[in-house]
Design brief:
108 residues; 434 Repressor (Amino-terminal Domain); mainly alpha; elongated; 7 helices
Length: 108
């Protein structure tokens, strides 16, 4: 048998219940408690916001005046938005059309 061949005899499929038991038995992989979740910082996820608005990265960056490279860095985890930016992303998430109207007023 070559190194890249996997025999079905080598695999031992686990039931969903067995997987759950194994995960809960691992001390380092315990679910977070409500106390843990409250303690954690809630950061708006820009990729989720952008996808919910059905916008490309380019469209989102242009509409909300965010440099495209910065947006890509946030989405790919290379950078984290600072506190004022997190507040701005929260506003976009809660009322995207209002933020769009305010930022992109057409002056007659």
């Amino acid at each position: 048998m070559s190194k890249t061949t996997i025999s079905s005899k080598m695999l031992r499929p686990m039931s969903t219940e067995a997987i759950e038991r194994a995960a809960r038995a691992d001390r380092d992989a315990q679910p977070l408690s409500q106390v843990d979740l409250k303690r954690m910082k809630q950061t708006p996820r820009v990729k989720i916001i952008r996808r919910a608005l059905d916008l490309t990265q380019e469209e989102f960056a242009e509409r909300y005046h965010i440099p495209l490279g910065t947006l890509r860095d946030w989405e790919q985890g290379r950078a984290e938005p600072d506190q004022p930016t997190r507040a701005y992303l929260t506003l976009i998430a809660r009322d995207p059309e209002h933020v769009n109207r305010v930022l992109n007023l057409r002056r007659s």
